[in-house]
Amino acid sequence: MPSERGTVRSARAGVTNAPPARARLPRSRRSVSEPAVPGSCSPWILMYHSVAVEEEDPYQLTVSPERFAEQIAWLYRRGQRGVSVRELMRARARGRDDKLVGLTFDDGYADFARYAVPILQAYGFTATAYVVADLLGQENGWDTEGPRKKLLTVEEVNELAAAGWEIGSHGLGHQALPGLPADVLAVQTRQSRRLLEEVVGGPVTGFCYPYGAVDLPATLAVRDAGYDYACAITHSPLTGRFAMPRCYVGARDGGWRLRAKKGRHRLRDAVTELRRVGKERRT
C-alpha cells in the first residue's frame, strides 16, 4: 500500500514501448499514452483510501476525520477546489482547471460516506470513489495485515451516485491486473463497469488500477473497455490519460507536506515528459 515514496505494495510498470499519442481518435482507439489534454502536464490528483479512526494501520491507509478536515481546509484556503476526476477532466478539456485538484478514494470503504462526504460537502468539494464491483457490502479481505474495514453497500453506492458523487471501477475483486491473460483483463475491466453501471443507473467512465499496478496490456484493456480515463499512482513510461499519476495522502500530511508533494509531482511530470520527447526523437 502507499507510502511516502509512492506505494509499498504497488508494482511499477516496466514497459517502455507505449505507443505514441494520436490526436482526435475515437475513445476506443485512443493511445494509452495520450495526455489528459494534449501538450499539458498531468493533473494534480490526491489519492486517499480510508477516513476513519484506527489504532493500528500498517498499510498507512487511514486518515482521521480531524486530519482530513485540516487537509481540505488547507486546499480551500489556497483557493483550490477539490473535484471528482470526471469533473477535473471536463474542466481541463475547456482549459478551466487552474484551481481544481482531483480527490480520489480507493477501495470504496464505507467510511467515505460517513466521514469524508460531510466534510467535502461543507466546502463545496466533490470526489471520486473507486469501488470493487464484486465486493460491495463486504470487507477489505485483500489487506491481510490491516484492520477489517467495511465496504460501501450497493444501496450506498447508488445513493452517492444519485447525489452527484462519481463512482469509478476498481476492478472486480481487487486483483492486480499486470500479468493476467487478455480474456481475464477484459472481464476485470468490462464486467466491473457493466455491474457498476447497473448499480448507479448511468455511465461509469473512470477506472483505478488495484494496488496502482499497471502495465501496457492493462491500459489497453481499460481503454478498450470504453473508459474515458484511468488512475495509477506513480509516474511511468505509460503516464497519460489511461495511467494518470496521483499523490498519496496520509495521516502525517499537513499543509507544508502537501505543498512539497505538489512540487514533487510537477517535477516528476516534467522529467516524464522530457523522457517521452527524447524517446520520440530517437525513433
Describe this structure in words.
This protein is of the alpha/beta class and 283 residues long. The chain has a single domain (33-282), classed as TIM Barrel (Alpha-Beta Barrel), CATH 3.20.20.370. Helix content is 35%, strand content 12%. The chain contains 7 helices and 10 strands. It has helices at 65-77, 85-93, 111-122, 154-162, 182-200, 216-224, 255-282; strands spanning 45-48, 50-51, 62-63, 81-83, 100-107, 128-131, 166-169, 206-208, 229-231, 247-248. The strands form 3 sheets. Strands 1, 4, 5, 6, 7 and 10 form a 6-stranded parallel beta sheet that branches. Strand 8, helix 6 (216-224) and strand 9 (229-231) form a beta-alpha-beta unit. Helix 1 runs parallel beside helix 3 (111-122) and helix 5 (182-200) crosses helix 6. The model is unreliable at 1-28 (pLDDT under 50).
